Amino acid sequence: MTKSLTLPDTERDHVSGSVKGAIKLLEYGDYECPFCADAQPIVKEIQRRLGDDLLFAFRHFPLINIHPHSEHAAEAAEAAGAQENFWGMHDLLFENQSALEDQDLVAYAGELSLDETRLIREVTSSVYALRIREDFKSGVRGGVNGTPTFFINGERYDGPRDVGPFLEALSKQTVEK
Amino acid sequence: MIPQTNVYRSVLGAGRQAPEFTLQCTPDQTVSLNEFRGRPVVLAFYPADFSPVCGDQMALYNEMLNEFQEFEGELVGLSVDGAWCHAAFAKQNKLHFPLLADFEPKGAVARSYGVYDEKEGTCERALFVIDRDGVIRWSYVSPIGVNPGANGILSALEDLQTKSETTDAAK
Questions:
Q1: Mean pLDDT throughout B70-89?
Q2: How far is it, in rounded angstroms, from Cα B103 to Cα B81?
Q3: Does the beta-carbon distance from A65 to B56 stay under 8 Å?
């Protein structure tokens, strides 16, 4: 289980950026959630602007009843992660949110030059389902109430999901440190 | 971060007997609170069916039924919408728990729990965790636009389980 509910765990989570980054941004998201897809370019811009000051982590929070493709999409990201390309799949899934059928997932694996057979086997046998559920449960206990939910250095960020206000909240963290 | 029991107008708090009710859960079926006696019940009052989906409280709880069941907890949603409206909402969101219609007389059950918003004519966004003897053990009213999540419910169910284990051990 995760060490901290609302801080990235660099040993367990998928992280991007600098481990030494003073600002830690954690997102709980669902690949089929339109609001998460909308937030994706904002996260990218924040990463670009903050560079090595930022450590970004993503945990899965699939709402599988309303988003029937979200579970397999999350499992495909994990399967890609097992082949060292979580973030490649993560980006492709959000960029192609309207095409998340199983055959689409396989096509993305191909696009990323992953071992497709292995990815199919791992997704169809739910190898990562338990891990995804752990993400989900940690989110619930940490105060996630929908997707996307962001935590900045462990505190839930409820402000507007635009680059400006987001950066303002993030930079406050550096000042306070 | 964890929502605590708060003082909110006349909302019924911990230690009070949960007011009994019988409400329609489908156009041709009713549910009574006392049918749940013997296991914990979570009452989730919410303002209206068909609020935006991704942040929707009922959609979140729907994903958590297994977690609630780990504590033998039964979840029911309540709003002033009618049974047909609930049926459409449940179908659209593939909800796997009952939605009760506090419809006629409108909001009577919400009033008895102290969570009826007279001005809006809807239920407040309020949570109650009721123990196996029908006593309220935790209640929380969220600002109307804020989805309170599920952490408070899980903590309350956990407390209940710990207490009932202690009681059973003492017997």
A1: 96
A2: 6
A3: no
Q: Looking at the domain that runs over B22-170, which CATH code has it been given?
A: 3.40.30.10
Contact B54 A143 (CB under 8 A): no
Side-chain half-sphere exposure of B94, counting CA atoms within 13 A: 8
Q: Is the pTM of this model over 0.80?
A: yes
ipTM at complex level:
0.85
Residues of chain A in contact with residue B46, where contact means CB-CB under 8 angstroms, are none
Delimit the domains of chain B by residue range: 22-170
| CB-CB under 8 Å, A65 with B63 | yes
Chain centroid to Cα B159, Å, comes to: 17
A14-176 sits in which CATH class? Answer: alpha beta
Active site (catalytic) residues of B: 54
* Domain boundaries, given as residue ranges, for chain A: 14-176
pLDDT tens profile A83-139: 999 999 999 999 999 999 999 999 999 999 999 999 999 999 999 999 999 999 999
Q: How far apart are the C-alpha atoms of B42 and B136, rounded to whole Å?
A: 10
Spatial CB neighbours of A104, under 8 Å, sequence gap ≥ 6:
A96
